[in-house]
Structures are given as C-alpha cells and as structure tokens.
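Project standup — Tuesday

K.O.: blocked on the structure for the chain from last sprint. Re-posting the sequence here as requested.
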Amino acid sequence: MKDPAIVAIVGASGAGKTTLLEKLIPDITRRGFRVGTIKHNLHKFEIDRRSKDSWRHKQAGAIATVISSPYRIGMVMDVDHDYHPIELASFLPDMDIILAEGYKSGDIPKLEIFRPESQKEPLCINDEHLVAFVSDMSIDLSVPRFAMDDINGLADFLISYFNLIPAVSIGHRQAAP
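H.V.: unblocked you, prediction finished:
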C-alpha cells in the first residue's frame, strides 16, 4: 500500500475552493480513484450536536469519540497541535489522493484558485510548492494554469502530476450510500 498523493487547494475566502472541490471530486472518482478530503479550519469547531450521546461522551472527558454506523464513521478527538496533512492521511486509509482545502502556508503541493474579486493578487506568487493555478485571468506563475471550468483538464493534470494509478479496479469498489 503506497501513501496517497496530497495536494492543498488554496485561495482567499470566497475564491471558490469548495465549489472547485465539489466538481473535481466526482471527476476523479469517476475515473476509479479513491478521493479523501481534509478541510483545514484555524478556529475551534464542533461537529457533534449538544445532548447527543457522543457529545455527552466528550463532555464527560473522553479524549476521542468515534461514532460508527453501517454507513459512516465519524471521529472527534482533542489534539495538542494543528496536524499537518501528512499526519492526517493516516485517518484516510486506502486513498489514492487527498485533496486538502486550506493549508496555504503549508509545505505540500498546492493548487491555487484565484478570482480577482476575492483578492488583489495570488497568494502563492513565490511559493515553491505551487504546482497549478486555477483562474480565468491570464497570469503567468510558471506553473500550468487552468480555467475555472476546466475540471477535466485539472483532473488530468493531477492524475499525471502524481502518477496516480487506482489501487483497485473500479469494478471491485462499492460506493457508500
């Protein structure tokens, strides 16, 4: 089992990172690849609802709580630092590629989405980790540039850049309901 490729999708707030991921994920999965995602959040957040059993377990002092059903597993865990995407990859076993939304200051390959109405200039102008740029503006950052609607071209690039080969043929995988 090889480690998954990891790429950070970065850009200013409102640039369209989540929208891009909503289009890119199905394009890559349709080709037989297993895609995992990480959403980086610099603020404290809660994903469990007040008074639910798992919330009550955390409130009682559990360091980690796993919620499990025949269809999904969720985990809430206290941590002592902001985990690097490579550390988080162990929570996403058997993925071919992990798309991490955020981590603009990180040291992993990055794909920047840029809209001039969201920011004055690209965030990764001099970032050695920038591997691709998504914008409808013609800006040369010495990396491949894709139009906002060129999801197929972007997926082709990522598969080629990371030399992705599906771990298992698509006929043997089953999607979760």
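K.O.: great, moving the ticket to review. Helices lie at 17-30, 53-59, 85-88, 151-161. Residues 170-177 have pLDDT under 50 and may be disordered.
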